[in-house]
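re: the backbone from monday

yeah here it is again, tokenized this time
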């Protein structure tokens, strides 16, 4: 008999006993324990214990019934295993808490473990005669999450949970007065920005001392899986990079950004007539209102979102922090910052004077910063120094590779800036001429680079949505990327009678971001992409009706482990998943994103999108822009990022202009004539 089927048959009975449910009852989702198990197998025992204890509290926050009490108890018992492996006295506390939850659910651990062991052994003895029962077992599994059930079997098989009688006496280490959050390197997935190891999310206000600069690793946007080998290496580089504008030098010492804001307060004006935007209108909103006056509410909203960039832009380099008070910068976030900067100038939040000061510094730094292998921007930079950063978040003379997806977003916004602000054309073109796309666009498709300190790996980067969106950035500058613009890897999944396009490759996450960004920035990519975008929106609306909650599935930065998740419409685990950059599920973080709501209302502007806007009122921080979002359990995700606030600002601009920012047909025609 196939070993997987044996495992499934054993596991069905094990879980039925464990939770005392019949086959028709809703089974508990133990997949939420997976992240702790991954950490445990990496010998990260302290971190695993803390994750499991967080799971325990989350279970009880949902509902304090028998099922949730026993799930919470199981999580505490697993935490006990981890603390004991680490010789940590906290094992006693976790064990006692788990026993308390079991007793409250009307069973003792002694009775519970005996019942588990007896049933498990009986099933092992009868497996050879289980051919008839197999169909029943597999039928039951159809009601379960197979990944969840297999995880539970692995826990029992490796840890022998049913034989465990509690932690041994004499554990020595006392961490009861310390708080340690998990920190370990992730496989690259979406965002390649390191995160703080300690973040306070218990205060109503976001304060600077909530964030420290002791970093842990993050992944990258939509990289294919490959083995990440961690090499400890520190290299010295000259951090005293002189930032100068290469074609038109400007003296900055007379007018600092902070002073410029004070100087021009009260004198802002909307400067739309002086900068033509494309006439082609292929978006979803109503009639064109190019010269309309932005309403007071939207201007106040834009002012609020702009506060993130006021507090998170380095005055020397002009680069912006990817997340609040965290001094690393990626090209994806620099692209978001350019979008924010253009938006607030066009909406009258800042003057042309401040715009020019900020734009000049930023473009100067893009032209001065070192490139990875003299080819493309590094995966991340030190915001204050423009230093290359390696995979261990250290200054490096070599860097860590490039991301064609992040650079693609930057290229789109540089093209918008070039079209709307011709005075910067030469400076932007100088930066483009620095770049070498030969390896990054080999075979006319996006190819990422990952350098771990000893070896470089090239890989096909991007998945459906992000791949096509980022590829347009290169095409706008005359590069050929046809193999990243096709839909050869797309299949369709039926949901609510809607054909939902999904990527058949592993590691894909179908989220709204690239489709809505393309709608605002590019007048969409082609008719197929427009249809895909419409279907992606409609399926979320119907899901909202089913669950009676607002749905806006996007990527999201977090102020706690795992630091970043995809709220996916579909991924390899199914519909409506929340997955971290480590590939683990985080269903407790199901909810909606702030910038997703703004994008929906800007692009579609229907009753559904307008009804969601009420949800963003409570998602404003006092001084630093908008928070990432909110879970369905009511928890506000108090992370602040350049991506989220930048997208909010460009959504307000799109809503105001009622047309895409670029006429890509005209640009591509000009490119073809110049070639």
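seq for it, each position gets an aa:
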């Amino acid at each position: 008999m196939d070993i997987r089927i044996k495992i499934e048959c054993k596991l069905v009975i094990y879980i039925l006993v464990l939770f005392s449910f019949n086959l028709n009852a809703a089974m508990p989702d133990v997949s939420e324990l997976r992240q702790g198990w991954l950490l445990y197998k990496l010998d990260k025992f302290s971190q695993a214990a803390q994750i499991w204890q967080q799971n325990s509290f989350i279970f009880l926050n949902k509902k304090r019934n028998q099922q949730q009490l026993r799930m919470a108890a199981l999580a505490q018992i697993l935490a006990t295993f981890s603390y004991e492996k680490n010789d940590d006295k906290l094992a006693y506390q976790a064990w006692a808490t788990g026993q308390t939850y079991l007793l409250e659910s009307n069973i003792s651990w002694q009775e519970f473990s005996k019942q588990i062991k007896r049933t498990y052994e009986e099933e092992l003895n009868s497996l050879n005669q289980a051919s008839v029962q197999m169909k029943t077992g597999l039928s039951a599994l159809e009601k379960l999450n197979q990944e969840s059930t297999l995880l539970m079997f692995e826990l029992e098989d490796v840890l022998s949970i049913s034989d465990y009688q509690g932690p041994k006496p004499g554990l020595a280490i006392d961490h009861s007065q310390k708080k340690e959050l998990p920190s370990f390197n992730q496989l690259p997935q979406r965002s390649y920005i390191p995160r703080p190891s300690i973040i306070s999310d218990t205060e109503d206000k976001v304060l600077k001392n909530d964030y420290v600069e002791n970093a842990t690793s993050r992944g990258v946007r939509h990289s294919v899986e490959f083995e990440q080998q961690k090499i400890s290496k520190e290299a010295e580089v000259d951090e005293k990079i002189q930032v100068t504008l290469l074609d038109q030098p400007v003296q900055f010492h007379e007018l600092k950004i902070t002073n410029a804001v004070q100087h021009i307060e009260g004198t802002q004006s909307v400067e739309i007539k002086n900068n033509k935007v494309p006439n082609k209108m292929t978006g979803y909103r109503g009639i064109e209102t190019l010269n309309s006056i932005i309403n007071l509410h939207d201007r106040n909203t834009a002012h609020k979102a702009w506060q993130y960039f006021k507090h998170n832009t380095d005055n020397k380099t002009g680069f912006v922090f990817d997340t609040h008070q965290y001094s690393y910068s990626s090209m994806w976030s620099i692209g978001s910052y350019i979008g924010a900067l253009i938006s607030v100038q066009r909406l009258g939040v800042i003057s042309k004077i401040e715009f020019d000061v900020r734009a000049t510094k930023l473009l100067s730094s893009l032209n001065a910063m070192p490139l990875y292998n003299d080819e493309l921007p590094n995966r991340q930079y030190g915001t204050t120094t423009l230093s290359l950063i390696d995979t261990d978040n250290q200054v490096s003379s070599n860097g860590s590779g490039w991301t064609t997806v992040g650079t693609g977003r930057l290229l789109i916004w540089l093209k918008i800036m070039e079209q709307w602000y011709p005075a910067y054309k030469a400076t932007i073109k100088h930066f483009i001429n620095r770049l070498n796309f030969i390896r990054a666009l080999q075979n006319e498709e996006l190819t990422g680079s990952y350098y771990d300190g000893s070896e470089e790996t090239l890989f096909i980067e991007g998945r459906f949505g992000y791949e096509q969106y980022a590829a347009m950035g290169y095409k706008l500058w005359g590069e050929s990327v046809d193999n990243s613009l096709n839909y050869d890897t797309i299949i369709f999944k039926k949901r609510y009678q809607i054909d939902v396009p999904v990527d058949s490759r592993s590691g894909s996450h179908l989220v709204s971001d690239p489709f809505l960004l393309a709608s605002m920035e590019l007048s969409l990519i082609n008719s197929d992409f427009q249809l895909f975008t419409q279907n992606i929106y409609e399926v979320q609306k119907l899901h909202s009706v089913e669950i009676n909650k607002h749905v806006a599935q996007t990527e999201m930065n977090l102020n706690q482990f795992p630091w970043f998740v995809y709220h996916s419409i579909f991924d390899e685990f199914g519909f409506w998943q929340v997955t971290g950059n480590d590939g683990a599920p985080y269903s407790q973080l199901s909810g909606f994103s702030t910038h997703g709501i703004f994008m929906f209302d800007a692009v579609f502007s229907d009753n559904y999108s307008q009804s969601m806007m009420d949800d963003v009122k409570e998602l404003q921080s006092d001084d630093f822009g908008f928070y990432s979002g909110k879970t369905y359990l009511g928890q506000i995700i108090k992370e602040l990022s350049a991506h989220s606030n930048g997208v909010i600002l460009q959504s307000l601009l799109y809503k105001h202009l009622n047309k895409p920012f670029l006429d890509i047909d005209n640009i591509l025609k000009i490119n073809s004539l110049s070639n």
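The two ends are 64 Å apart (CA to CA). The CA atoms of residues 478 and 675 lie 8 Å apart.
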